[in-house]
Amino acid sequence: MEANVVEQYTPEKKLTKREVVSAFWRWTFFSHANYNYERLQATGVVHALSPVLKKLYGKDSDEMKSALERHMQFFNTEPSFGGPILSMTIAMEEQKANGAEIGDATINGLKTGLMGPLAGIGDTLWQGTLIPILLSFTLAFGAEGNILLGPVAFFVLHLGIMTSIAYFLWMKGYETGKEGIQKMLSGSLLPYVMTFAQTLGAIVIGSLAASFVKVGTDTSIKLSGDKVLSMQTDVLDTLLLGLLPLGATMLTYILLKKKMKPTTVLLILIVGGGILAALGILTNVY
User: 39, 85, 284, 286: which one has the fewest Cβ atoms less than 10 Å from its Cβ?
Assistant: First the structure.
């Protein structure tokens, strides 16, 4: 008599789009909520992934405890462009929960290997390109006292653009898995995009400095007879228009590169500008 063999069937553990999107919003709003110098964004990672991990492994299971320990390792990246690291991690955790042979080292290796490169891309595109471009449109309105087209427009545009791109990248990271971002990083298009963004950001920052940094001098030198040599119009503007604003901007950049605190740099500029203005050397310092 043959024994009846009953095949055990374990249903596939599948995440819904809503659960993946929920993890995105948790990461977006809480990535820096408990930022600390021991693990940096690790608690934000756990907060974003914990509902997903509970569904995949069960709330009180050993696998859940192991997953929490796995994601409490040091992690730090730019939240928007680095977000796909976590959505790819979700995809890998989903595969692992369904029996794929994916070890802790593989998941942590993906996170630590990509967090630096994607942070560099994100910081360049947000801080070095997007923010200066938006400021070039809105700063002039803000200087004239227009609240809506100044700070409000900057906030709305920045938030809308940043969130839209971050959401798109998050969902792409989950859909394509770990190979998606690796292909992007190894492609030939990325260096051109980064070079363009860095160049455009530098141009915009330069134009902002020329438009809004007001530094001039009334110093003049008496020549023979009634002739007077103006240091501003006859010398500095002849050499390079906007030379003093450029000098003030470069001084600020150099001080910041020397790891000075922004408040210290601001104090130096205020005190130095005030002394030079009191001596009659500089004007239009504001």
Answer: 286
